[in-house]
Hints:
By secondary structure, this protein is an alpha/beta fold. The chain folds into two domains: 3-261, Spore Coat Polysaccharide Biosynthesis Protein SpsA, Chain A; 272-349, no CATH class. The chain has helices at residues 37-43, 63-69, 86-99, 119-136, 180-189, 203-213, 215-224, 229-238, 246-251, 272-275, 338-342; strands at residues 3-8, 54-59, 78-81, 106-111, 139-144, 154-161, 168-175, 192-202, 257-261, 287-288, 292-295, 301-304, 310-313, 318-322, 327-331. The model has no long low-confidence stretch (mean pLDDT 94).
Amino acid sequence: MEIYALILAGGSGERFWPLSRRALPKQLLRLVSSCSLLEATIARLNGVIPLARILVLTNVDQEKGVREVLKNFPECNVVAEPSKRDTAAAVALGAAWVAARNHTAAMVVLPADHVIKDTAAFQKIIHDAVDAAKEKSALITIGIRPTSAHPGFGYIEIGEPVSGKPGLHRVLRFREKPNVDLAESFIRKGNFRWNAGMFVWTVPTILTEFNRHAPEFGRFISMMTAPGAFEKNWGEKFSKLPRTSFDYAVMEHADRVLVLEAEFDWDDVGGWQTVARYFPKDNRGNTANCELTVLEASDNIVFDDTGKNIALLGVNNLIVVRTRDAILVCHRHHAEKIKNLVAKLPEELQ
Length: 350
């Protein structure tokens, strides 16, 4: 069975300000290696899905940055949404693009901004998920075993195992981002997994589920599979689709939803505090990607994009980020408010 991929490469550039900007979101940054998160996402598919069968979906603000990062990627396989319509429309667009090429193919949906180091284990899960999607005619979501009661992630409550497929379970329900207490109760129960936003299905299955639960999107897919229709007017039709999430439109209502537990490492790198895990740490708990001079300072996170030394004296629990045109200094316990700060900045720095 041919496998295609839709990589979702939109999103805002707020949590990693000042390194990230509206036109330079997280997935285009080189945070944990010498390549961007988007490049790493595509590289993980090498040997499983050829570049010609990968669609990268971004938006008009970030299209230029995406194309600059993906210099050796097929130009026509980068598509920019003319207007933001949320993930249901994005998935429908990807399904239409795949269906126009092979109406019986398997389809993988991946966010562009996650860190996964074990490529072999990742590729095995993709193959297993494709097999399960084909055999069970189901929507497969990839679940991550929680390592903490993280309130910033969505959760999947898993049910009985599916016979013949190790790690495959029925989905009882999806849970939105919980508060800390509720997240801790999920961990204690033991049958919850993090929702990583990775999905696998066949084109016939996803079209059936769209037609059943969100027919506007099903009609869009059917219209776009006519010869030449996608290239001619996908943007006009896309902009008229309802603005809603894929989870709400389809996943929460579909009868045939299964979760396959991941056997690979996974990190959402949601902000400076999480990405700091990939920086060297000194004996006072300071982490940095650059040369650091420290006196009576501890538990600080430092990122420098200019190649210069940063010195810390008598400060604790700070996030310090320097770029060529801006500096951020904030308490690490206020990191979640960086996006609120960005809204107050001059337009040219957002």
